Amino acid sequence: MHTVIIGIGGVGGYFGGKIANSGQKTSMIARGKHLEAILKNGLQVKSIDEDFETRPFLVADDIKKVDKAD
What is the mean pLDDT of residues 28-55? Predict the structure, then answer.
């Protein structure tokens, strides 16, 4: 299954991170400093339940670079 998250802010980053961390194919659309940080360091999530770092299948700033979502 391929999930695409558009907008990696607080909510998109958290849920997208949880999906990516579960091992599912997850692509994310981000811009600016968020895009740079995820490409360099992976997506770092800090929450009340747990902190974790994950690397999505693809992070891009252009939806045309992303495979079709399921």
Answer: 94
